[in-house]
Specification:
about 400 residues, alpha/beta, 6-stranded mixed beta sheet, 5-stranded mixed beta sheet, 12 helices, 14 strands, about 15% strand, globular
């Protein structure tokens, strides 16, 4: 992309938001002067990822036909305003799982390709945690806790990003769906062995979901989607929490981990007050309801007593559309970052879009519900994004 944007878009222009994750790619078409999408399209195939990172060519193979279809639908329905007004895409924002560590090809290749194909001169490439933030919090200071198979907290004071956890099920994601499911299965296996800390109730659910306890290692360990399989047991833990103290204790501990991450990411955490910090909860993890939310609210009230806890109303696709609209109007307030929220200025070199490679990259997926042991499972939450600023960082 060689030409930078010259002036804000007019109200008749369109904006596009894209959410690319482990379950596929979603595209939303909106207007500069209206909130929310006009039309959406879904591509069920996840964008491939290989040794070179997220495959820009494969993303374009899905995005460009979907964008053309959405623009055609808008033209047929007269959603573009004046009949003789050309359909222009003023800006486009893409949120993708793995963008921070695997998005090098997207940042190098997409600006020029999208300028050529759609005439887009305003583009943002964001980590999916950033679009989750924009969808749940908007453009104000605060923190979003995105919980699904994994768990990540991302906050900003509008000058820098603060990220905590999201390190994957082996190194973190504490309190997320895989963490809860693993703890529940461990308690079930303890009951099977007759060891202290076991839960007969969870052992019964293990039998119902996976079969005999002795067969669980053989079902679990060979699978490449172990985090999602573990997370599929998290709803069982929540279902038992009302009658089983072991299950209830697992959710209390999960709540403590989640609140700790939120407190560390909160932009007001540095002064210890939590004043003015909105904490938005988003993702399938929190659809487990009161068994998790009650102890979580208690932990948040203790750790960030003046924070406003809300339930995020917008998902990452909504967030991508909001970022695109803000770009079109010169109103983007969220902090730009080379990998977390990359906005080309026109001076970057743009390479030819390359060939396809590899397999799908995981995203901020929901906790799987009622999944048989031999069924395909969703990929885990992106745990590969590097830190922007950790609570232990003092040098910035």
């Amino acid at each position: 992309m060689t030409d930078g944007p010259s002036r804000p878009a007019g109200p008749e222009a369109y904006v596009l938001g894209v959410d690319s994750g482990g379950s596929g790619l979603r595209v939303a078409l909106g207007r500069v002067d209206a909130d929310g999408p006009l039309f959406t399209a879904v591509c069920a195939e996840p964008v491939r990822t290989g040794a070179g990172g997220i495959d820009a060519a494969h993303l374009l193979e899905q995005l460009l036909p979907s964008a053309a279809e959405l623009l055609e639908r808008a033209a047929r329905d007269g959603a573009g305003g004046a009949d003789d007004a050309p359909a222009t895409v003023a800006s486009l924002a893409i949120g993708a799982a793995g963008m921070a560590t695997l998005g090098g090809r997207l940042r190098a290749e997409l600006p020029g390709a999208l300028a050529d194909a759609l005439g887009v001169r305003r583009l943002a490439l964001a980590a999916d945690a950033v679009t989750a933030y924009a969808g749940a919090v908007g453009q104000g200071p605060g923190v979003v806790v995105a919980g699904g198979t994994g768990m990540i907290a991302l906050g900003t004071d509008l000058t820098e990003w603060r990220r905590t956890d999201g390190w994957g099920h082996l190194l973190g994601d504490s309190g997320g769906g895989a963490w809860i499911g693993r703890a529940g299965l461990e308690a079930a296996m303890r009951a099977h062995d007759g060891r202290r800390g076991g839960s007969p109730a969870l052992l019964a659910r293990l039998h119902a979901v996976f079969g005999p306890a002795e067969g669980l290692p053989g079902l679990l360990y060979p699978r490449s989607d172990r985090p999602a399989v573990l997370a599929s047991f998290a709803p069982e833990v929540a279902a038992c929490a009302g009658v089983d103290p072991v299950a209830a204790g697992i959710l209390r501990e999960a709540a403590a981990h989640i609140a700790e991450a939120a407190a560390a990411a909160c932009p007001a955490a540095g002064d210890g007050s939590g004043a003015g910090c909105e904490v938005a909860l988003t993702g399938g993890l929190f659809r487990m309801g009161e068994p998790l939310l009650v102890p979580l609210r208690e932990e948040l009230a203790r750790r960030v007593p003046q924070a406003r806890v809300t339930t995020g109303t917008g998902d990452p696709l909504t967030g991508a559309l909001r970022i695109a609209r803000a770009l079109a109007l010169d109103g983007l307030r969220l902090p730009r970052h080379p990998t977390m929220l990359f906005v080309p200025t026109g001076g970057e070199s743009s390479h030819r879009v390359g060939a396809a490679a590899g397999n799908g990259e995981p995203g901020l997926d929901d906790v799987p519900q009622d999944r048989p042991a031999n069924a395909p499972a969703k990929a885990p939450t992106d745990g590969d994004t590097p830190p922007v600023r950790r609570s232990s960082d003092i040098s910035g």
